[in-house]
Structures are given as structure tokens and as C-alpha cells.
Amino acid sequence: MAGKPKLHYSNGRGKMESIRWLLATAGVEFEEQFIEKKEDLEKLRNDGYLLFQQVPMVEIDGMKMVQTRAIGSYIAAKYNLYGKDLKERAWIDMYVEGTTDLMGMIMYLPFQPADTKEKNLALIIERATTRYFPVYEKALKDHGQDYLVGNKLSWADIHLLEAILMAEECKPDILSAFPLLQAFKGRTSNIPTIKKFLQPGSQRKPPTDEKTVAMVKKIY
């Protein structure tokens, strides 16, 4: 039997967090090998483990997978979270790309200079409420189903919940104008594997603080 997937990344959210979410939702136990200093990253590079010299890297099914998007689509397909056909997969991809864009803005906020943070936070809130969340609210309204694609939990739903929770860390009432997304958040948060991942003590990482920023800058 294959061993547990092993995740190589620093001990913070970053680009690995969405992969943790996917594995946790699929009920897959995983190990984490934290990169704590520059030398740890250099060793992975020198050993030839990083195809493009960068992390995240996930050891799974005998592969050393890199590139967040490739890792995510492999895990989603492997655990039946990637739609039933090409069309559904295309919709899932589009939705995931949208939430990736929004989460990228939030992810980089703690790393920005203090004098631009307020302006960038305002931009995140504006984009979330006018560009991204209306799309998902409309999708749920138009088909009247519990999930975004095919009336079945998929990568798109998991990614959207992660994005919602990150956006709420920026502005707690950010969903006030989106009743269907509020209901979606309640439903998906209560899926047993997700509920477990949202509990204290899970492998979910906390919001990025100054200490994490300093650690990341030291490694990369």
C-alpha cells in the first residue's frame, strides 16, 4: 500500500494551503516536511526533487509533484472531486482559477509594505464583492443546487469555501450581500471531513502573521 502523501513547504499557508484543504476534504491523511531554513530548500533543489527549483512539492503515488495547479488537479481527479466529464471539469477549472486569483491577492497582503496595506485591503474587498463573489452567488441561484458544478461536491466548492473564509478574515461581514454564499458556507463547513479540518489542532494553518512573514523571507 502506498504511504501517505508528503507535503514539502514552510510551516504556513502559502500555496500549499489549498492542497491541504483538498487532501483533508478527501479524508486523506498526509505528512508534512517543513522547510525551516534556506538550507532545507537548497537540499531539495540539489537532490533534484524540484522540477522547477521551487515548492510546493508533494510526494504522492511515487511522484514528486510540483506546480500548485498540477498538484491540485491530480488530487481532485484521484479523489473524485473533479466532475464527471470534460465540460464539468472546465467549469471547475474556471471557478478554481477565479478563487485562486482572489486568494492570491489576500495571500500577498501581509508581505506588502505597511503604507500600501490599507489601499490593497480595500482593493481585495472591492474585487471580492464586485468581481468574484457575485459569480458564485449567481451560479448557485441559476441552478438552485447545493454545489457549484454537477450538484456534487468538487474542487470548486472546496476552493470557494477556503476563499470565503480568507476573505472574512479581511472583513468579517464580507458576505452580507450574498445570502446564497452564506448558506453555501454553512453547508460546506459542516461536511464531516471539512468540519474536522476547521477544528483547532488540525493541519490547517493560521492566518499569516509577522513571524511567518519573517520566516518566509528568510527561506525564500
Automatic annotation (TrEMBL):
Give the keywords, sorted: Transferase
User: InterPro entries from the xrefs?
Assistant: Glutathione-S-Trfase_C-like (IPR010987), Glutathione-S-Trfase_C_sf (IPR036282), Glutathione_S-Trfase (IPR040079), Glutathione_S-Trfase_N (IPR004045), GST_alpha (IPR003080), GST_C (IPR004046), GST_superfamily (IPR050213), Thioredoxin-like_sf (IPR036249)
Q: What EC number(s) does this enzyme carry?
A: 2.5.1.18
Q: Annotated Gene Ontology MF terms?
A: glutathione transferase activity
What sequence ranges are listed for the domain GST N-terminal?
3-83
User: Which PROSITE patterns is this protein grouped with?
Assistant: GST_CTER (PS50405), GST_NTER (PS50404)
Catalytic reaction list: RX + glutathione = an S-substituted glutathione + a halide anion + H(+)
Q: What class of enzyme is it?
A: transferase
Give the GO biological process terms: glutathione metabolic process; xenobiotic metabolic process
Q: Where is the GST C-terminal domain?
A: 85-208
Q: Which family does it belong to?
A: Belongs to the GST superfamily. Alpha family.
The protein's name in its UniProt record: Glutathione S-transferase
Source organism of this protein record: Probosciger aterrimus
The gene that this protein is the product of is Gsta2
